[in-house]
């Protein structure tokens, strides 16, 4: 009999206890299997419980011999006995039964197909025998429940997914702030730089007289010499007014034209 709780699917890999005896027939071998990189055969045997159920038992594995030969291995014991095994649900894959080296072999565990080979009806699930049990060979390794490196890889990618947008936003903000700072420095430098040419034009209410001393060589001061000093004062006033209105360039041209006229 088998003691288990819950549905059959929820009980997979759980340890169960079966009382009965192995049926007196040859094992069926599960081929094309490997354990730790070595090719092996798994030995499958029918087991009848005291309640009359026929179960398929995976006894364990033996190494494949030369040219895929089947090595000698112990047969299942006879008589009434009790075994402890793990409940397994078969994979939905064809058994593909063949006869090789005078042994019935299958590609996958399919209890109904294997039952036809043995001439008995088998339950749709099977038992995987634990080590140290009556009839057990080398026990099949259990699947690892450790997360291995995959959990750490997953956490690293999650952290990257969170930090990447934050880092991108910081660099964009830093770039914008740097550009604004450079623009402010350029504006401050432009405001502090003296403008060339003085006032380009006099606005309403502004004095159109010279706001700055005329550039160039100093002119003669007004004295008692008569008309020549008055003409020099007039030239300076005109040059200053033109420079205030049109800038230094016009004043320079005016001085050059005045000097040319004087030479003439």
Automatic annotation (TrEMBL):
It comes from the Bacteria. This is SURF1-like protein. Belongs to the SURF1 family. The chain crosses the membrane at residues 150-173. The lineage of its organism: Bacteria, Bacillati, Actinomycetota, Actinomycetes, Mycobacteriales. It comes from Dietzia maris. Its main location: membrane. It is found in: Cell membrane. PROSITE patterns: SURF1. Residues 182-238 are annotated as: Disordered. It is a multi-pass membrane protein. Keywords: Cell membrane, Membrane, Transmembrane, Transmembrane helix. Pfam families: SURF1.
